């Protein structure tokens, strides 16, 4: 046998750690770095067919002669010394071939929910980079992000949604829509307005005071400030 390290000697077979790799000239080649020993069955590619794995490639791909340094992204470690492929629809998995840790984003079931791939996240959850994430309280329902509220869960007395946030009472400059549990904007200078008519202010931005549904400062003649509004003398 002619060894690839430059020495030439005649032997009945290649030494362990070498293979003729299908060479018609019977030249022995060292096995691939992933193999401690490899096959020598007169086939091209025998140097990649590991019999024993190298110490730094201790994991064997199940039902193959391939040795790996670590399991690839689309594999899971099936035993202490072997890797197996994840099963569709899992893009990656752990523990078993169907215990998904990621899904194929371009598929019909792209969202990961409790280690399974589903078409869309359940009510009260939102997809974040392909992973179903629970809406964060006080959001009961959310859109695009766990903190962007569509409706409120009532915690802390919150019930009104305004600009994707939840409030117990609508913030200054808005009025409550009790039917839809949302806040609508009042006219400028008005902190609270009538749900039936937003031009009717119920509370003005200080130091202005309510007068005949509008905001004034100071009160007109024959009127006096009385808390948040003007009243006649």
Structural class: mainly beta
Termini separation? 120 Å
What number is the mean pLDDT?
A: 93
* Beta strand count: 27
Kindly estimate the percentage of residues that lie in beta strands according to DSSP: 35-45%
| Rg estimate, integer Å | 36 Å
Largest beta-sheet details? 4 strands, mixed
Helix segment tally? 0
Total separate domains: 3
Give the strand order of the largest sheet, numbering strands 1, 2, ... along the chain: 7-6-9-8
**Helix/strand order:** EEEEEEEEEEEEEEEEEEEEEEEEEEE
Uncertain residue segments:
none
Instruction: Name the helicity range.
Output: under 10%
Provide a descriptive summary of the structure in words.
The chain is mostly beta strands and 233 residues long. It folds into three domains: 1-69, no CATH class; 135-185, Ribbon (Hormone Receptor, Insulin-like Growth Factor Receptor 1, Chain A domain 2), CATH 2.10.220.10; 186-233, Hormone Receptor, Insulin-like Growth Factor Receptor 1, Chain A domain 2 (Ribbon). Helix content is 0%, strand content 43%. The chain has no helices and 27 strands. It has strands at residues 2-3, 18-19, 27-30, 35-38, 50-53, 59-61, 67-68, 75-79, 82-85, 90-93, 100-103, 111-113, 116-118, 125-128, 131-134, 139-142, 149-152, 160-162, 165-167, 174-177, 182-185, 190-194, 197-204, 209-211, 214-216, 223-226, 229-232. The strands form twelve sheets. The protein has a four-stranded mixed β-sheet with strand order 7-6-9-8, with no helix packed on it. β20 (174-177) and β21 form a beta hairpin. The protein is rod-shaped. The mean pLDDT is 93.
